[in-house]
Amino acid sequence: MRSVKVILAPQYFLYFGILGIYLPYFNLYCYHLDFTGFQIGVLSSLRTLAIAVFPLVWGALADRFLIRRPIYIACTLISTGIWAFYLLTTDFYAMFVITAFYGIFHAPLISFLESFSMDLLGDEKKSYGRLRAWGSISFILTVIIVGRAIDAFSTHIILILILVGKLMLFSIATRIPASSPPRKSPFSTGARALVSRQVVIFLLAAFLMLLSHGTYYGFFSIHLEDLGFKSSFIGITWALASISEIFVMINSERIFKRFSYESVLILSFAAAGLRWFILFFATSAVLILLTQILHAFTYGAFHVASILYIDKLTPKEAKTLGQAVNNAVTFGLGIMSGFFINGYFFDIIGAQNLFAISAVLAVAGGGLMMTNLKPKAAI
Questions:
Q1: What's the whole-number average pLDDT of the chain?
Q2: Which domain holds residue 312?
Q3: CATH code of the domain in which 14 resides
């Protein structure tokens, strides 16, 4: 089992390290190319749309033909090659095409990696959080280091750094052992389980959870600046949130030995409702920092519990598709809807009122999730 973790941990470290370069700095790179806000928004929307659609396609193919590993390796290699084309152009329309094709092959990687982890960890699935924590650690380190590198050089360095990271990810991807379990029933039978009552209720609740995060991911920093806080404080708040999630991930095995997945999920919804409600009226630095500690539950505990819960509800014949559906509904449709809705209403009602609406959405998701809670699993 240790050898499996040695293979998987670097995958998470590199994947989220690449994300730590892309998310904070790629739009900044585009801004330095004098792209308009609309053009930058279009490129960002393309990526989110890819997350919502293509993991489902690749996941279905992987489970239908038992070719999860070959698809993962191929998508890693092809997306790396496509990324290299960014080095050859600064034209918006060319970058639009590159972004579209890059999304097709890069989008399914994380859901495939999650399904590999669930299979290869076997009886140690509850230790998944410790494995995933490497991704969060990498994200924090990368954001800080690359930020300083950009100050020393220019935003163009991010293209090269991501290309190097992708090449390293591909080299390690080839070491992942085959893990597709023998099929005991047709793929279609396993896929139908994804429309069961429990799965549908969970996905709807998870969608509301990520929808409620739209204000936070899209406008939290702007909200703090409007309150008069400096960039240094804003950076501290984001770092504190990431540190908090790592703490929960490292201790996830201990948590899930004591509490059911459903109970942890409901607690996460409650924490999100509290967090967004406090941000509705909070103006003091101390209170705002305390809300960031709740990120341990609203993201750390929620994410780990979600991966384990969907694995529990999904039969062996559709494990990859199950993780793909979960990722598409939450970090695809949920986040995309959150960005669009918050972007539209931000100028009308402001971030403060949007946080109040976010609190209602999170509580609604928790109430929906409670219908999946068995009496013996209650906290």
A1: 86
A2: 191-372
A3: 1.20.1250.20
